[in-house]
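RECORD TYPE: inverse folding
INPUT: structure tokens
STRUCTURE:
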């Protein structure tokens, strides 16, 4: 959206187009009905532009207030009440916070500024509203004085700024970059010498006024900055000699324009082009228009925000679609490569299979036979797992000496035949218990431990075929009480039945 600036003084309104540091005049409109009609036509021709209005009028007031520490709506309501008390009948007001006092109550010091003649702005604002033109805000020349000094590298805690606009001198008293007092003095002699004398005289008058208002001390040195055309600087320097309480600094308007990167140089001592450029490049956060005059500006902000969000969504969708296109292209190339490899492998297989001997059987039958052979191999079982179970128990019991082991599947069937999956495995273990100087009870205890350890294995059933000793009911167990008595047990036999899925 292009930016256009409106400059309003006490007699007429001037319109400028701003682009890349250049200000192009586009019209001057008088305050009568004809001028307002021309201004309405101008707004209609530039409906897509954003407008900012800067005023240079005498009816501008500034008041300092001390308010309690408040936040949100309470602070806004209190400030609105104070504005109503000081500036009755105007809605064109601005509030600038000057910081908080370092006391227990932490009061806030604010600067209340207002344009006290809203009737002068009313017809222009009405024309802007009827044209539905977006108005970013209303500003004043005095409001931009501190920003001008800051941009050209002339900041000061307290100073005077004198500029020439509209055949009048704008005199502003600034504290820390904020305008605390401003007024307009008429210029009776527009010659270079007359302008120089007027600057010197007005600086002295404003200095005496500030002393009378006790805003500065009588012995305080006050810097005075004067913005003038280069051709006027020698005359102003002669008219404003060094003074004990006023320290004059003449600012070359062309040098200031170069520092601000303004390509349209002022043609005379007037400084409105400098303030217009500042408004276009660095508008202050505070402005005088309420929400009603800025209604269409808010709508434009929302519209541009929605357009920006839509463009972001469109760009995101385009990037996502591009990624999908690249992925699809990659997948198609991969599929083509795999098809080519498949065709090559199939061709090589045909060449290799042509060299195979002819079996007299078709491929489907051969595939079924190889599948059946694989199933038979899976059904065929080996004694390895059963032997591993017995080995784990023997490792824990070194007193058991293995003498023989047999393995079979099912009852009395050879182990090389494939059986159904539910056929049990039968392992016959022949072993003996060998303990030095052990009696019968100790040998039997070791044997029972061995049997219990086998039973603890998962999926195992143990059947004792022969014990180390014959132990029957009615038969006395001999040889269990004497330590010196040596007992010779016989080998024992155990049958271990292991299910196919332990």
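DESIGNED SEQUENCE:
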């Amino acid at each position: 959206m292009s930016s256009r600036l409106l400059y309003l003084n006490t007699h007429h309104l001037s319109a400028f187009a701003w682009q890349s540091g250049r200000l192009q005049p586009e019209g001057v409109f008088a305050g009568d009905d004809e001028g307002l009609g021309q201004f309405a036509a101008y707004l209609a021709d530039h409906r897509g532009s954003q407008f900012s209005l800067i005023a240079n009028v005498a009816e501008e007031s500034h008041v300092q207030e001390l308010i309690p520490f408040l936040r949100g709506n309470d602070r806004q309501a209190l400030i609105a009440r104070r504005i109503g008390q000081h500036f009755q009948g105007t809605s064109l007001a601005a509030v600038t916070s000057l910081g908080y006092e370092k006391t227990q109550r932490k009061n806030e010091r604010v600067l209340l500024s207002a344009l006290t003649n809203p009737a002068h702005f009313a017809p222009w604002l009405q024309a802007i509203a009827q044209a539905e033109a977006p108005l970013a805000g209303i500003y004043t020349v005095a409001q931009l004085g501190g920003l001008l000094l800051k941009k050209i590298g002339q900041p000061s805690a307290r100073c005077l700024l004198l500029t020439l606009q509209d055949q009048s001198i704008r005199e502003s008293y600034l504290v820390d970059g904020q305008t605390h007092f401003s007024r307009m003095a008429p210029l009776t002699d527009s010659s270079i010498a007359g302008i120089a004398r007027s600057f010197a005289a007005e600086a002295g008058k404003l200095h005496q006024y500030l002393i009378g208002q006790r805003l500065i001390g009588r012995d305080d040195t006050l810097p005075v900055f004067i913005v003038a055309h280069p051709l006027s600087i020698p005359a102003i320097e002669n008219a404003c000699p060094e003074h004990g309480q006023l320290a004059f600094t003449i600012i070359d308007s062309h040098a200031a324009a170069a520092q601000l990167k303004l390509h349209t140089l002022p043609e005379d001592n007037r400084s409105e082009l400098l303030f217009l450029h500042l408004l276009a490049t660095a508008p202050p956060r505070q402005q005088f228009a309420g929400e009603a005059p800025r209604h269409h500006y808010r709508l434009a902000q929302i519209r541009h925000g929605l357009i920006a969000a839509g463009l972001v969504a469109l760009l995101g969708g385009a990037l996502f679609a591009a990624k999908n296109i690249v992925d699809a292209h990659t997948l198609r190339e991969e599929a083509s490569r795999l098809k080519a490899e498949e065709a090559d492998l199939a061709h090589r297989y045909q060449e290799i299979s042509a060299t195979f001997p002819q079996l007299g059987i078709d491929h489907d039958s051969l595939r079924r036979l190889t599948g059946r052979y694989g199933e038979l191999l899976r059904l065929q079982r080996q004694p390895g797992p059963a032997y591993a179970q017995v080995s784990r128990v023997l490792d824990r019991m070194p007193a058991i000496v293995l003498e023989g082991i047999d393995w079979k599947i099912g009852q009395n069937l050879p182990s090389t035949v494939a059986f159904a999956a539910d056929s049990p495995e039968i392992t016959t273990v022949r072993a003996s218990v060998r303990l030095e100087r052990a009696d019968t009870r100790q040998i039997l205890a070791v044997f029972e431990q061995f049997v219990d350890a086998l039973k603890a294995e998962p999926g195992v059933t143990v059947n004792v075929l022969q014990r180390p000793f014959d132990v029957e009911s009615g038969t006395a167990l001999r040889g269990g009480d004497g330590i010196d008595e040596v007992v010779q047990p016989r080998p024992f036999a155990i049958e271990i039945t292991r299910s196919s899925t332990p």
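NOTES: DSSP finds twelve helices and 17 strands in the chain.
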